[in-house]
Every structure is written in structure tokens, then in C-alpha cells.
Amino acid sequence: MDIQRMRRSFEIVGANGDEVPLFFYSHLFLNYPETRSLFPVSMMTQRDRLFAALGHIVTNVDDVDVLVPFLQDLGRDHRKFGTLAEHYPAVGASLLATLEHFAGDAWTPELAADWAEAYGVIATVMTEAAAESDEPAWWDARVVSHERRTLDIAVIRLEPRQRLDFSPGQAVAIETELRPRLWRYYAVANAPREDNLIELHVRAQDGGPVSSALVRHLSVGDPVRLGPAQGDLVLDGGSDRDLLLVAGGTGVSALKAILDQVTQDDVARRVDFYVGARTVEELYDLESLQELARAHPWVTLVPVVSDEDGFAGEKGLVSDIVVRDGPWASRDVYVCGSPSMVDETVKELVKAGVPEHRIRAERFAPSRPGPSAEGSLTS
Length: 379
Known about the structure:
The protein is an alpha/beta fold.
């Protein structure tokens, strides 16, 4: 395989924007109509996902340590869509047809062979991981509580019928009958509990069909389905360093789970937890976090508001306040929030002397399928 040739062709194809996924799905559904039932009725939010996943794969195609676990997770996760091994050849055929259509003169027999070989490896890794998994394809669960903390934010607690294992900081996908076949990822906001309850923090996004339904229309007792946990924003098991946690918006959920885990560990670790928001109202989980801090004197909670006068606490950008209160060079650092907030915080902490390899970050973006997934190949 000529990796550089594949990457150049992918750039050429990607330059055609929305036309590319439109062509792909049209080709797939016309030539393989049996695949249509795997996808939601509305494809508006679906179209970018195939090529988001492919972009991640092409970027890391020569890094086996990154690529193989990604594909294995993708294969296991795709079981929740009803994806079967026999669906992969159809997707591969439509993918190659799409690449050929948009690559133009760059498409050669050699390039076609490269892409066919690459897709064969992708499909093999994904189908083998799916076949070897002993976990359920999904977990049936019910809503046990639903709290509207603001107009656009809800804290939802779910009870899966079967034990759903996850590590604090990871996310799970959720599907509701209100929006069938549309799955979205949300970080679990607690460490695993004996009662198996899972807490999710959901912000309704403009034009977001799933988030809006979860915030505004989901009710106690409603059934939902959950996918397997994914994500790398988890505690470094080989470290006992003190922690710096920096959250923005609903990014507080993943870091709250990590804090919950630390409170249950035997190792004594100091934790400084900075929570940033634009307004006081958007500090929607402050009371719960304050209870945790009061119960554990080694936890320091610092709420920060950027756009509202009269707040009694810290005022400004959370990245600025964190750096001001340093140094943090001896800490393990976890950052979660919007892409701009995370990027700025990481940049400033590195400039202030925090080793970059000790910073773990997760960016919550409304258009992403979730904090741990780059996309999907078949649904």
C-alpha cells in the first residue's frame, strides 16, 4: 500500500465537501437497499460520519498502536446498529465507487488496489472484534430521574437492566424511541455504583434532534438503549500524583466521574477542580460538586464565570484563572469542555510548565457523535 498516495487522494476527494457523503449514501441505498434499515430516517446528521471515521483512519494508517484499538472499538460499537459482517462488502463497494468518482484523474488501478486492500483490513479488524466480544450489543435501560437544571441542560439518571461496565471519564451512546436509530455519546458523570445507576449531563443543541429530545421530552420511566463505553479520558492507573481537573460546560460530567473515583480510592491525592461557565446559571451542577468538596477536605473546588457581573467567585476565562493559580507542573491534568476552551487551557498549561504528556483532554463538540468516537463506517 502506498500510504502517501492514499492520503493525497483522500484530500482530493474531501475537497468536494457535502457532495461526497451524499454520493456515497445514494450509491449504497440504490445498490444495496437492504442496508437502509441500519440508518435513521433523516440522514442530515449522519452524512459526515463515514468520512470523519475515514479521516481518522487515513491519518493513523501507519500507526498500528492507534489504529487497531480504534477499529476494534468501532467494530464492537457497530453491533448496536444491527451491523452484520455481510454488510461490510456493500459499504466497501460504495466507498470505492465514491472515491473513484471524486478522485478524477488521480484514480488509477494501483490506487484502487491500495484502497481495496486498506478497506479489507478495516473490515477484518472490525468484524473480528465484533465477533469476539462477549458484551451485549446494547443495554436496555429506563429513566429513573430527569432534572432540568437550566432551560437547555438536564441531568438524567438511568438504570440499565444488565450491568454496564465502564471506567470513570468514559462515555456511552444513548438511543431513545423519540429519535430511533440516532445514537449520541455522553460522558457518564459518576464512577461505577453498586446500584448500576448512570448519570448523564445533556445540553440541548440548536438543531440537535437527540439532545433536544433528551432534555425536553424524555420522562421518568421511558426506555432507552445504551451502547458500550468508550473513551480514553481515564485516570492513569500507574500514577498517584495529585490532580488538576479543568471543566467547561457539560464537560464537568466526565471529570466529576473521575473525582468520584478518587474519593473511593485508598490513595490520598489532592484534587483542585476548576469549573468554568459563561453565567452562574450554567454552573448547573455546582451544588453537587460542593457537596463532594465538603465531604473531602483534600478537594478544592473553584467555580469560574466569564460573562456575568456580580458573581461572588472567580471572574474570567477558566484557562486564565487556572494558570494564575499555578504552578501545576507536578500534577496529572485532565481537561474537558468545548474545543476552544480545551485547546486554550492545554496551550496555556504547557506554556506554564506542565509536561504535555501528563495532560489528558477531551473536546465536547455538538457535531461529533461523541467524546470518544471520530465517526462510524456503517451507521
